[in-house]
């Protein structure tokens, strides 16, 4: 009858398959009894003992199952298995043949885990071989050479029983020169879910599809009006390019019923790439980014993929809730960053994706929770926390629904750990990917068959699946959604399912939090540096005329400093925080006081200028410049120890502020100039300089005053004397003209020695000698001068 079924395409009924298995067991019973009565192993038997590879569990031939289709067969399907066999031994394998073997059903989820750990153990049970024509033969397997195989078997020939998960093994048997008898040399076990009919009660499955990446944008922006962003590297362009990780996540998730879980920072970063952006190279120089078209295409595809689907938005930057709970709550202001990251969702996701996301969910790393994590996770407004069943454990014989209230209005949505972690690890090989798919389906079906009640299960895979992991996830989910025992459900609906009263609702203590996760957390020093940066930003922004140019990029950068993506990358995280703080310091130093050299002050008072320089592209205001005398007894500023004046400087300009000073004594006085914000906080570094005071004393003032007075008097006397001399000269000229008319006849030459022709010299007492006599003068004492020529040796008056 079996042959008739093989050749005519008929299928055996379940009852017939049961009779066949029972008959084979009864036929083999006498043989088994005879084997049990055999004596101890003979030398010939000893020579045929298992090879070292078999003794250790693995065979000398490796069997890889690269594909199994369909993953969950139903009545009338043909199961096709493809893969390769490789002889890892040193001797050729002859008379080799590979066949399929169906083992017993696996009734518990733990039995599936156990089989997965020993999937290539040749010593374990392998089940009954299908045999017949469903065997592929190899005349010889050369060491080190991989040989492909394909076996296709009608599902009816597998003799599957009731609904459940069956062990399906691909075994290679053959002989070697050292062991010349037929034996199993290699095996690979996998899982075959069997649910041929629609389940009466289907499991509701929620699958989270995460779109999360590393931190790529810096706090630095260009000085232009558009504030061109600067990226720390160009890795994001690779991820969203065709074939990249994020490109695959979008294209694969487009056709699946999933709940999209998105980090708004990823959307903001890709959106920034659609415009002009800069990329910083390893040498520190920046170049123009060239992936605008790729960014636009990726966002367009994502918008189409999420249309009509549920979107859950994480806080901006996907902050590490566990690190914040364990190391950040003692640092002032840390929780406020989580609130800001949550509020930033409204300005990113709806604007870019044109959908309204849910912000009610918090997702700690790997779903590991403790009381402090729960408290922090809900502090920013979320009232649902995505935990995992290996953290919030249940002591039940079945898997309860995901949702359960834990008090305080908070709901823990517990993801299934087995189904969530099956896609981790290296899935680059097709055999590993196929095993992961079958294991996922097996766990899902076994869960559904545990009770007759409908339950809700949530699958939360790793945050950043690789391309191969994403492809495996999509393949498993397609098979699940095409199966007969599960139906899709959104995360919000899963959180509202009536909780199982027997499910655990007690959050585990901090003492059981995994040490492997705690070692990867951000240290307290990281949150201290973030708080220091925030303090600098708060002091800086109050002086800006356009605060948004600085507050927004630095606020988002500090959200990124708390990102979950920094786990396991402590050095890179510290470098990013240092770059953010250093860049802010550079902007702060753009508004500063110009250094001054020693200033000399002569006199009792003078004006001292102090220059404020603004190298920013925007103006600054709400600043005060205080000039303080460190020795007010010698030098005062506007009559006091210090004076303040308001300062406002346009971008790219400088301004000098003048202060009135007064000196009381000679010597040096130290003066300090310091900028302050309006709320009294110091801004920038102070500038100190010396003022050398040279005060003028009263005695010196009297001497100088007397000298000035003498100069004035001397000048006045010279003026009066010159005026009198001019008057006399005018009078003599008049008298001389009259004498000339009398003494000189007409036509006679004038006498050059005439008394009126010149003025006489003044004596030392100011009187004039031999000056011409005026009409009112008395008569001369001497006789009248003779008109005759002078004798020799006589003095002639001129």
TrEMBL record:
Pfam families (UniProt xref): DUF6049
InterPro entries recorded: DUF6049, Ig-like_fold, TonB_box_CS
UniProt keyword terms in alphabetical order: Membrane, Signal, Transmembrane, Transmembrane helix
Sequence ranges of Basic and acidic residues compositional bias: 755-768
Region entry Disordered, spans: 43-62, 67-96, 496-515, 729-798
Residues annotated as signal peptide: 1-46
Listed transmembrane segments: 700-719
GO biological process: carbohydrate metabolic process
Keyword Transmembrane helix: yes
Protein name, as recorded: Uncharacterized protein
Organism of origin: Streptomyces swartbergensis
């Amino acid at each position: 009858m079996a042959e008739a079924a093989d050749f005519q395409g008929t299928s055996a009924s379940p009852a017939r398959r049961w009779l066949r298995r029972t008959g084979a067991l009864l036929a083999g019973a006498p043989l088994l009894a005879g084997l049990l009565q055999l004596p101890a192993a003979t030398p010939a038997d000893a020579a045929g003992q298992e090879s070292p590879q078999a003794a250790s569990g693995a065979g000398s031939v490796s069997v890889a199952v690269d594909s199994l289709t369909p993953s969950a067969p139903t009545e009338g399907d043909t199961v096709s298995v493809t893969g390769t066999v490789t002889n890892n031994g040193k001797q050729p394998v002859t008379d080799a043949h590979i066949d399929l073997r169906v083992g017993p059903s696996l009734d518990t989820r733990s039995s599936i885990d156990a089989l997965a750990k020993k999937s290539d153990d040749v010593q374990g049970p392998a089940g009954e071989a299908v045999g017949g024509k469903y065997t592929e033969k190899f005349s010889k397997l050369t060491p080190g050479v991989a040989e492909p195989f394909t076996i296709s078997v009608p599902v009816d020939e597998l003799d599957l029983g009731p609904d459940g998960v069956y062990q399906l093994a691909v075994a290679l048997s053959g002989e070697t020169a050292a062991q010349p008898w037929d034996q199993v040399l290699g095996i690979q076990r996998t899982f075959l879910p069997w649910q041929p009919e629609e389940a009466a009660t289907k499991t509701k499955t929620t699958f989270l599809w995460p779109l999360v990446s590393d931190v790529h944008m810096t706090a630095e922006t260009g000085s232009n009006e558009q504030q061109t962003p600067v990226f720390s590297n160009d890795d994001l362009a690779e991820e969203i390019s065709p074939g990249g990780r994020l490109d695959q996540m979008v294209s694969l998730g487009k056709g699946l019923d999933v709940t999209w879980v998105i980090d708004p920072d990823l959307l903001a970063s890709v959106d920034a790439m659609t415009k002009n952006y800069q990329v910083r190279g390893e040498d520190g120089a920046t170049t123009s980014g060239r992936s605008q078209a790729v960014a636009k295409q990726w966002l367009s595809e994502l918008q189409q993929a999420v249309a009509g689907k549920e979107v859950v938005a994480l806080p901006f930057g996907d902050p590490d809730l566990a690190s914040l709970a364990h190391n950040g709550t003692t640092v002032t202001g840390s929780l406020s960053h989580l609130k800001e990251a949550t509020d930033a969702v409204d300005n990113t996701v709806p604007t870019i994706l044109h959908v309204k996301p849910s912000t009610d969910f918090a997702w700690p790393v790997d779903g590991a929770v403790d009381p402090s994590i729960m408290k922090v996770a809900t502090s920013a407004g979320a009232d649902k926390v995505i935990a995992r069943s290996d953290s919030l454990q249940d002591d039940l014989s079945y898997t309860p629904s995901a949702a359960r209230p834990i008090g305080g209005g908070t709901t823990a949505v517990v993801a299934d750990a087995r189904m969530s972690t099956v896609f981790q690890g290296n899935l680059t090989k097709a055999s590993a990917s196929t095993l992961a798919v079958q294991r996922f389906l097996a766990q899902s079906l076994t869960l559904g068959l545990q009770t007759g009640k409908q339950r809700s299960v949530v699958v939360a895979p790793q945050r950043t699946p690789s391309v191969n992991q994403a492809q495996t996830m999509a393949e498993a989910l397609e098979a699940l959604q095409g199966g007969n025992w599960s139906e899709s459900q959104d995360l919000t609906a899963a959180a509202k399912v009536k909780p199982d009263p027997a499910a655990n609702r007690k959050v585990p203590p901090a003492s059981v939090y995994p040490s492997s996760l705690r070692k990867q957390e951000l240290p307290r020093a990281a949150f201290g540096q973030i708080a220091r940066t925030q303090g600098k930003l708060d002091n800086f922004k109050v002086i800006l005329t356009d605060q948004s140019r600085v507050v927004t990029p630095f606020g988002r950068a500090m959200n990124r400093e708390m990102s979950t993506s920094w786990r396991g990358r402590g050095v890179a995280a510290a470098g990013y925080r240092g770059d953010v703080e250093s860049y802010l310091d550079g902007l702060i130093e753009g508004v500063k006081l110009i250094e001054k050299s020693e200033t000399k002050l002569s006199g009792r008072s003078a004006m001292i200028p102090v220059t404020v320089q603004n190298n920013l592209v925007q103006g600054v205001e709400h600043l005060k410049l205080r000039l303080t005398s460190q020795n007010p007894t010698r030098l005062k500023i506007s009559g006091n120890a210090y004076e303040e004046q308001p300062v406002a400087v346009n971008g790219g300009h400088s301004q000098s502020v003048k202060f009135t000073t007064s000196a009381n004594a000679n010597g040096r006085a130290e003066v300090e100039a310091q900028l302050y914000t309006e709320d009294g906080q110091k801004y920038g570094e102070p500038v100190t300089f010396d003022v050398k005071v040279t005060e003028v004393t009263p005695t010196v003032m009297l001497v100088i005053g007397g000298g000035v007075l003498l100069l004035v008097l001397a000048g006045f006397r010279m003026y009066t004397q010159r005026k009198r001399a001019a008057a006399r000269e005018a009078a003599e000229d008049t008298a001389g003209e009259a004498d000339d008319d009398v003494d000189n006849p007409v036509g006679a030459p004038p006498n050059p020695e005439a008394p009126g022709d010149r003025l006489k010299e003044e004596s030392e007492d100011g009187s004039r000698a031999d000056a011409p006599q005026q009409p009112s003068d008395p008569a001369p004492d001497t006789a009248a001068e003779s008109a005759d020529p002078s004798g020799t040796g006589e003095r002639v008056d001129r």
